[in-house]
Amino acid sequence: MTARILVVDDIPANVRLLEVRLLAEYFEVLTASNGPDAIETCENGKVDVVLLDVMMPDMDGFEVCRRLKSDPATSHIPVVMITALDQVSDRVRGLEAGADDFLTKPVNDLQLMTRVKSLVRLKSLTDELRLRASTTRNIGIEELLSRNFAAEDTMPKVLLIDERKTSVERIQKMLRDRADLDISSDPHAGFFQAAETSYECVMISTAFADFDPLRLCSQLRSLDRTRFVPIILLAEEGEEERIIRGLELGINDYLMRPIDQQELTARLRTQVRRKRYNDQLRASVTQTIEMAVTDGLTGLHNRRYLDSHLQTLFDRAVARRRPLSVMITDLDRFKAINDTHGHDGGDEVLREFARRLRKNVRGIDLACRFGGEEFVVVMPDTEGAVAEKVAERIRAEIAQAPFAIGQDGTKIEVTVSVGVSSVLKGVDTVAALMKRTDLALYEAKSGGRNRVVAKAA
Question: Which sequence positions are flagged as catalytic?
């Protein structure tokens, strides 16, 4: 695993020490001796993790971290604060500034590398989501990335898996009015509970009498539904090796007992903020994909989706020796509708036609807006004669009931011409099928409109 690590410290010897350790693990290392240079490097270069000294002149590490996390362009970069200070209040202050973790000097090599590798994996995931979101929909991406999810009013839904009653009671008290907390005292039941409920964080105690908590962490990471849920390990003093192993397995954070309330709430808030950020990116990608294959006016699939999906349906029909039929519909004299009632009126007609079309086809049928006033319906497992009857039903449905448009509900007569064709046995192609269907539509329109023409298979 390679990545670019920025080491920020005003003492050259400290920088060199960390640089040597990181280079030995084949990381690329950048350095900065002060806060402004560190911020500039993050803004201008690809930085995967920042190792940030707290005690620096002019601008200390807390302020550097706060500025990085408040800028949408750098807020996603994980920051590990390195300090000789070992007070809980200092860690809380750093977490409040947005730090992802703390390491105390002298830095343990194993802890350093394990933590860096864990955060690099997290950064890689976030980068992929950001890339997809920004390349698929540039409009609005900066607004999305600049949201302050930590400031949302909704309390996070959290699961605590801990069999010790006294420990549960303490944590319940600490998180009262700060989280919607569910409890599971049994790790097996806790696993299923985590899988069945949308939690924003799972906290797992290491103090089970006869169960390995890391096995539970591994199971949660291997399940699709819980793969991205943050996991915080609640560990005992002296369990450093277990914590390091947990970080390698993919836990997001840990707390050492006795647990401080401020540190618990700060670390929980950090994990929830990050999850909400990545969830929003995933949602943006999903929404954009839907937009890319959906016609915005009618809500039907668009031609892009038809072009990619029709071949699949065609190949499956041929391989299974099952029928497949296609119809192309065209609204008659649609230009006159636009000329008389304006494009708003025309849009209302298209939306109503799409609604009626959708009502008259099956769920397995693929209904698409082909372009303009043309629509295509692909009907798997449908013989030509049946497809012709469906087309006639749609034609009659359109012709029988006028379309109401405008605020005054003006009623206008609308008719539709339909061409139908089916896959030929033997040698056939998607292009040939669509050409036959289009020719059938042409015959319907040239033959007087408001009719169905089916090309014999």
Answer: 373
pLDDT per residue as tens digits for the range 130-139: 766 665 444 3
Q: Write down the H helix ranges in 207-333.
A: 213-222, 240-249, 261-293, 303-320
The pLDDT value recorded for residue 150 is 42
- Asked if residue 278 has pLDDT above 90, the reply is no
Dist. CA 66–CA 75, nearest whole Å: 9
Residue 295 forms part of a structural domain: no
- What letter does residue 322 receive in the DSSP assignment? -
174 and 168 Cβ atoms separated by less than 8 Å: no
Q: Is residue 281 part of a domain?
A: no
Q: Evaluate whether residue 293 is within a structural domain.
A: no
Q: Are residues 324 and 220 in the same domain?
A: no
pLDDT(44) > 70: yes
**Four-point Cα dihedral 176, 181, 182, 186, nearest 10:** -80
Residue 228: HSE in the Cβ half-sphere, 13 Å Cα cutoff: 17
Same domain, 171 and 140: no
Whether the per-residue pLDDT at 32 is higher than 90: the answer is yes
User: Is residue 188 domain-shared with residue 323, that is, in the same domain?
Assistant: no
Phi, psi of 6 (to 5 degrees): -100, 120
Q: Which domain holds residue 100?
A: 1-146
